[in-house]
Amino acid sequence: MRGILTVLFIVGVAVTGGLILRSGQPDAERLEQLRQEVKERKARAVAPVTPAPQAIWPMYRHDRGLLGRTGEALETPLALRWSFKTGGPVKSSAAVLGDRVYVGSNDNHLYALELSTGREIWKFKTGGAVESSPLLLKGRVYFGSEDGKLYALEAADGKLAWSFETQGKVLGAPNYAPRLDIPGEWVVFGSYDNSVYAVDALTGKEGWRCEMNNYINGAPAVAGEHVVFGDCDGKLSNVSLRNGAVERQVEVGAPIAASPAVLGERAYFGHYGNEFVCADLKTGQRVWTYKDEDFPYFSSPAVGGNRVVFGGRDKRLHALNLESGERQWVFATRGRVDSAPVITGDGKVVVGSNDGRLYVVGLETGSEVWSYEIGDSISASPAVVAGCVIVGSEDGSVYAFGPERKEARP
To answer: What is the value of pTM for the model shown?
Structure first.
């Protein structure tokens, strides 16, 4: 009796998940496949989405809203702990879990490095540059490649679990959201084939596709049952997580290359029309618009306290009041700021610049706290985790900075 109920349960899951028995495949074989998939889904559902070793920066901008903030403090001054040389520019932003750092390179590889030493643990080769930042979820690492594929690897050893092919480059980072129909998660990402996809994290099977009129360059944000993203046709779209249907759009008239930050019902983003916008996701209307000089904004914003902070191609870092859009301060660098800043728990902002420097400035004042000259452009967003800053450079290296070690007194 128990065996019959088990088979009926698996068949029920197959129906609700949209699966059917394939013609020509024995029923017993297909049912066994379904039984194993259900077993694996249950096992992964028990595991926490973000396990809790001491170091966690699981994805681009740290969280699903892409807010670019952490509750951790960052002790300054910092010192270089290690660097790791890849074979191409590093525009990918790192993800960190425990003592592992995962980061892509334009040499077509994704790397797993040891956080404490920078030692290579494994690497995986794709058919194109890996500018996408990785996502860590339940023992796997997900990322896109210029070869048009989204990859899912086993985080422990880098073995391929599956890949999903689109018809364009996948440069932006993937995000994730719980599935609303069966246990599991969607991995949500954009492609240069003008579409945003939701694929099953376990199997790589497509759930839905939302097609726009131009490239999707940035990462989509996830807020509740909605996915929010910009496209190069000049629209910010708010779509249903259930089926990818467009519910609201905000037209800005210029390409949106960066990723939005979503807090509550509001989205914050810049675009190539030289504006930074706060939009209401329910109404599809602008709340406020900031325009300073005629330079575009490619940097994704960070939101923390009563500030939204973002870089500009005017070579400056900007901080605005979150509610009004009123400028609080600007911080000048010597190169454009495409790097997305990170706000720390003790009121600091960490950001790179194309002037080759990594900066730490005060969130309240915009005054410089510390800087380090790497020497080549930094367009990647830093990861701030376990008291360290991990960031890539276009010189082809990944750098790790930590608090200066104090000499022990005799």
So the answer is: 0.88
Task: For residues 239 and 246, give the distance between their C-alpha atoms in angstroms, rounded to a whole number.
Answer: 4
Contacts of 112 (CB under 8 A, 6+ apart): 100, 101, 102, 120, 121, 122, 123, 141, 155, 158
Q: Burial-class residue 180 by CB neighbours within 10 Å (0-12, 13-18, 19+).
A: exposed
- What is the spatial distance between Cα 195 and Cα 206, in angstroms, rounded to a whole number? 12
H/E segment holding residue 233:
none
**Beta-strand runs (E) in 44-139:** 56-57, 78-85, 95-97, 100-104, 109-114, 120-125, 135-137
User: For residue 4, what are the contacts with CB-CB under 8 A and spacing of at least 6?
Assistant: none
3-class DSSP state for residue 10? Answer: helix
CA–CA separation, 70 vs 213, rounded Å? 35
pLDDT in tens, 349-405: 999 999 999 999 999 999 999 999 999 999 999 999 999 999 999 999 999 999 987
What does each C-alpha distance from 76 to 93, 196, 319, 402 come to in angstroms?
21, 40, 21, 8
Which segments of 224-298 does DSSP mark as H helices, in order? none
As given in the structure block, the two tokens for residue 100 are: 């592992």
Query: What is the tens place of the pLDDT at every residue in 212-263?
Result: 999 999 999 999 999 999 999 999 999 999 999 999 999 999 999 999 999 9
3-class state of residue 390 by DSSP = strand
Q: Which domains can be identified in the chain, with CATH numbers?
A: 2-37 (no CATH), 47-403 (2.130.10.10)
Distant-in-sequence, close-in-space partners of 82: CB < 8 Å, separation ≥ 6: 117, 118, 399, 400
Which DSSP category does 69 fall into? Answer: B
Burial pattern 132-142, b for ≥16 Cβ within 10 A else e, equals bbbbbbbebbb
